[in-house]
Amino acid sequence: MNTQELELQSRVENQGPDSPREIGLHSSPNGPKLPNYRWWLRVIIYILFLLTGQSAATLLGRLYYDKGGNSKWMATFVQSAGFPILLPLLCFFPSSTKLTTNPVPSSTSSATKIPKLSTLALLYLAFGLLLTGDNMMYSYSLLYLPVSTYSLLCATQLAFNAFFSFFLNSQKFTPFILNSLVLVTMSASLLAINADSENNTNNIPKRKYVTGFLCTLGASATYSLYLSLVQLSFQKVIKSETFSTVLNMQIYPSFFATCGCVVGLFASGEWKGLESEMKEYKQGRVSYIMTLFWTAVTWQISSVGLLGLIFEVSSLFSNVISTLALPLVPILAVIFFHDKMDGVKVMAMLLAIWGFLSYIYQNYRDVSELKAKESNDN
Q1: Higher-confidence residue: 356 or 207?
Q2: Of 69 and 375, which is predicted with more confidence?
């Protein structure tokens, strides 16, 4: 996120109907100020939620298939069905609870216009349907690809999100961000070139491997679009600074996505085989239920972290943080699922990490410039 975007986000929302919402920065009569320690604490918590939830959910999703699970709609269902565990949080964080800790001067404060209920319902429905399709593609990806390959391909979300952020969120491209996108693209290209070796090693039919490869790219592009649209919705439609808005953006779209999965589960006829699938699960019935339960829980933890980072910083930043799981998930996949980590995968992982560090360095430069500007202004 560049310096101009940081300054723009720090302006007070009520200066005009189209003014961007304050994200992570707070206003003062003397100009924009840098985030305080409470902001950093929230961001760190969201990052931990995102990384732990994403890593655990990916491994549990693969475990479901490896131990005898075969229902794509069930694998899709658990990615959104855990939303009820977030409902109690709405009682602890009512809509009046501000995320911004520093008060805004009374001369600039005014009542926030609340969006119409019909507008919010359509927004949540659209996001829910988008998540349903995206989760289904991810389910096919985990079924047809090794976890290590799947995880490395998910790094393409960074490139897709940068593209959508440029058009939807006014994200500016710098040489370091472009370098990051090129490296991530090269990482995915290496995996595509290595497809034949992957097929022979893991006994994956070429047709299924290609399907999983394309589904992962399609899911990454769809989810990146979702992130940019969520950020745009926070700024232009919801215009609120409460933690409950983050919860609502997770709970209601997840509800609609879950309803869509239930319809798909019955329309496809896969529900008929769930009982036999449970009986034939290698680890037993209890393990089958617990695998699905904890997959649902960890996906919700990951989603709260992701949406929290969108709210506090930007959609591109949240996607960059999610790539931190790249070194972790493939290593865990080698340990638990005996995936082969050959030289091509190692090179792809190093390129993806290099791309991540390139973006982080750009973010460091932006913050340093903002500090210098604030010091000169003072």
Answers
A1: 207
A2: 69
